[in-house]
Design a protein that fits this description.
The chain is α/β, with parallel strands linked by helices. It is built from nine helices and seven strands. The protein has a seven-stranded parallel sheet with strand order 3-2-1-4-5-6-7, sandwiched between helices. The radius of gyration is 17 Å and the shape is globular. The structure holds NADP nicotinamide-adenine-dinucleotide phosphate (NAP). NADP nicotinamide-adenine-dinucleotide phosphate (NAP) binds next to helix 1, strand 2, helix 4 and helix 7. NADP nicotinamide-adenine-dinucleotide phosphate binds next to helix 1, strand 2, helix 4 and helix 7.
């Protein structure tokens, strides 16, 4: 049995590709999801990867969900914080609910799940955590103060936790995807998407597998000297 890996939001889009890639590399993968039972069942049927439903934005629910996973599969050694949502709108039109929902789901979720696993990782002297950020957290994006703040927060969170884990065998890194062909991006109006693609030097959207590849690299047992870094996977759209 390979190391136990939990991928939040692991049943669709980028998370699905990460789950499948980890399984292919020999990990024992568990995917989490938030509410789309139909997609989760279809995913499990197709991949054989178990799916656990719990809301990553709810601290108590996450502690309970992770405890159940660990009881059944053993300690989580690899955690990929991938679950995320958008609720776009300019500041002028954004209400507190949209702000809060995005911060809780994209950023507070990283605290919720890391808090549940970091103690065990410290005791065992091994852990791999990858947080999925975004090019829009690095560069900002019109109509996304909530999402950009959450994703930018992930990058700071990653560096701080990396410092804490460094002497304990725990690496913590972020991946910052550019625009990737998933349901999240399909929600963007076509005219806007066409304009975005023109800003991507490789001339196309990313595929979920492009992101999965970078996660596999970062969680490898051998990747002991990479921590606190952000790997940008964006087709050259934003370099810094
Ligand atoms: P997606 O296709 O919309 O899939 C989102 C996944 O997250 C689903 O499995 C969903 O579960 C789960 N999820 C959402 N809210 C949740 C909650 N409260 N609790 C547990 N699970 C929840 O999204 P994606 O495009 O693959 O994005 C994945 C990650 O990459 C996100 O963090 C996103 O911000 C980031 N990202 C995406 C892009 C892009 O271009 N697509 C670019 C940069 C960064 P259900 O199926 O149950 O809804």
């Amino acid at each position: 049995m390979g190391r136990v890996a939990l991928v939040t939001g692991g049943t669709r889009g980028i998370g699905e590709a990460i789950s499948v890639a980890l399984k292919g590399a020999g990990y024992t993968v568990i995917a989490n999801y938030g509410g789309n039972d139909e997609a989760a069942q279809e995913f499990t049927g197709r991949t054989g990867i178990p799916a656990f439903k719990f809301d990553v934005s709810d601290y108590d629910v996450v502690q309970d969900g992770i405890a159940k996973i660990e009881e059944e599969f053993g300690p989580i050694e690899v955690l990929v914080n991938n679950a995320g949502i958008t609720r776009d709108g300019t500041m002028y039109k954004m209400n507190f609910e949209k702000w809060d929902k995005v911060i809780q789901t994209n950023l507070a979720s990283c605290f919720n799940s890391c808090h549940a696993v970091v103690g065990g990782m410290r005791e065992r002297g091994f852990g791999r955590i990858v947080n999925i950020g975004s090019v829009n957290g690095q560069a900002g994006q019109y109509g996304q103060v909530n999402y950009a703040a959450a994703k930018s927060g992930i990058h700071g969170f990653t560096k701080a936790l990396a410092l804490e884990g460094a002497s304990k065998g725990i690496t913590v890194n972020a991946v910052a995807p550019g625009y990737v062909a998933t349901d999240m991006v399909r929600a963007v109006p076509e005219a806007v998407l066409e304009k975005i693609i023109k800003t991507i030097p490789v001339g196309r959207l990313g595929e979920p597998e492009d992101i999965a590849r970078s996660v596999l690299f970062l969680v490898a047992d051998e990747a002991t000297f990479i921590t606190g870094s952000t790997l940008s996977v964006n087709g050259g759209q934003h370099m810094y």
